[in-house]
């Protein structure tokens, strides 16, 4: 993602950089996760900002896996530190990794992210592949930026055991670089990758996450899988069961709705487990039915939610 949307996670709701003492400690995070697991949550994703830059992340993951009932800890990363962390992540029990990669060109990577780390990300992907991780590559589709690479990304899914997912670019956050002209809907992305092979839908893929997954087969019979995440053209809010906790301790029931519950305040004011449980339950009950992104995009293109992706985690 452009640099302004994918950086350190330590922002407040109003965009100020948070002081380290304003971040939830690992102890506080573990307490919230333990309570959520007791309430029935069984899968957790670490995202950010960049989860691998936080000191002590591996020990934290180790502790997460000790929680009874938490079956899976997954990770979404920019991949820059993946080659350094992959072995330990795998041995701790992480099996699924999503790597954000919007281009396969080194120079364009630098232009988009502001950093010259393409080779490092690639090295991390190969290392993770060799270790046996299940890897998904998140490609945010942006007209004029990476639409010329959709076929190459689809071919990557044929060549490597990576599920490549094309994500519709969402207008999120007041500082977002999103422009209406850059938006491409899933149908158009699908059409443009037909050149790489035939697509056939994988049954019930939406039951496992937001992506509609397809098997891609090229004319020599090679197969791979690609996914499409279409929050704008085919939103999936009716099946959404996610909660998001920011590093500053705010619990959000919806990626695209600015309503938040201040768990940090509760944690630091002596709240009991019961009180925290009630707040989590209430946040879930307040979950909105949907979002207005399509209207926003068809209208003036202004985001309806001011939250930054880098703070909420995608
Ligand atoms: N609007 C919206 N977009 C989402 C939602 N979940 C995921 N996305 C988009 O899809 C991207 C990929 O999501 P990830 O969290 O990496 O992975 P995932 O596919 O949701 O998770 P798994 O199925 O567990 O691998 C996010 O960065 C968002 O852009 C959601 O609930 N609402
Ligand atoms: C915000 S990043 C944070 C995690 C980590 N630093 C990384 O780069 O993967 C998480 C995901 O959000 C997605 N994302 C970011 N901005 C987006 C946008 N405007 N629309 C759709 N997806 C977006 C990216 O694909 C990325 O996989
Ligand atoms: S309810 Fe919110 S978080 Fe869930 S799918 Fe809809 S927009 Fe995404």
List the helices and strands and how they pair.
Elements lengths: L25 H13 L4 E4 L10 H9 L6 E6 L4 H11 L3 E5 L5 H8 L4 H14 L2 E8 L8 H10 L2 E7 L17 H8 L4 E4 L10 E6 L5 E7 L14 E2 L4 E3 L7 E3 H6 L4 H13 L7 H6 L10 H4 L2
Parallel strand pairs: 1-2, 2-3, 3-4, 4-5, 5-8
Antiparallel strand pairs: 6-7, 7-8, 9-10, 10-11
Helix pairs in contact: 2-3, 3-5
Bound molecules: guanosine-5'-triphosphate (GTP), S-adenosylmethionine and iron/sulfur cluster.
The site of S-adenosylmethionine (SAM) has 22 residues, from strand 2, strand 4 and helix 11.
Concise description?
The protein is an alpha/beta fold and 314 residues long.
What can you see in these coordinates?
With 314 residues, the chain is of the alpha/beta class. It has one domain (10-312): Alpha-Beta Barrel (TIM Barrel). The protein is 32% helix and 18% strand. The chain is built from 11 helices and 11 strands. Strands 1-2-3-4-5-8-7-6 form an 8-stranded mixed sheet, covered by helices on one side. A 3-stranded antiparallel sheet has the order 9-10-11. The longest helix has 14 residues, at 118-131. The termini are close together. The site of iron/sulfur cluster has 12 residues, from loops.
């Amino acid at each position: 993602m452009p640099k302004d949307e994918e950086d350190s996670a330590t922002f407040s709701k109003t965009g100020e950089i948070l002081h380290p003492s304003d971040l939830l400690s690992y102890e506080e995070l573990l307490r919230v996760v333990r309570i959520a697991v007791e309430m029935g949550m069984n899968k957790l994703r670490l995202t950010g900002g960049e989860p691998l830059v936080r000191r002590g992340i591996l020990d934290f993951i180790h502790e997460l896996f000790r929680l009874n009932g938490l079956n899976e800890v997954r990770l979404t990363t920019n991949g820059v530190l993946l080659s350094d962390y992959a072995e330990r992540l795998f041995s701790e029990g992480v099996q699924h990794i999503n790597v954000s990669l919007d281009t396969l060109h080194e120079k364009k990577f630098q232009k988009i992210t502001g950093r010259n780390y393409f080779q490092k990300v690639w090295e991390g992907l190969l290392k993770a592949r060799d270790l046996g991780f299940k890897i998904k590559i998140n490609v945010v589709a942006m007209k004029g930026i990476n639409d010329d690479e959709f076929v190459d990304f689809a071919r990557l899914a044929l060549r490597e055991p990576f599920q490549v997912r094309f994500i519709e670019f969402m207008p999120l956050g007041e500082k977002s670089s999103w422009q209406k002209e850059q938006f491409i809907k899933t149908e158009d992305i699908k059409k443009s990758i037909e050149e790489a092979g035939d697509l056939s839908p994988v049954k019930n893929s939406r039951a496992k996450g937001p992506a509609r997954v397809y098997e891609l087969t090229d004319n020599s019979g090679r197969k791979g899988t690609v996914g499409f995440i279409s929050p704008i053209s085919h939103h999936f809010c009716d099946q959404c069961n996610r909660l998001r906790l920011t590093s500053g301790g705010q619990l959000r029931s919806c990626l695209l709705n600015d309503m938040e519950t201040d768990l940090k305040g509760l944690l630091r004011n002596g709240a009991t487990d019961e009180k925290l449980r009630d707040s989590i339950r209430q946040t879930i009950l307040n979950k909105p039915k949907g979002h207005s992104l399509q209207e926003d995009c068809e209208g003036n293109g202004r985001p309806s939610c001011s939250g930054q992706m880098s703070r909420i985690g995608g």
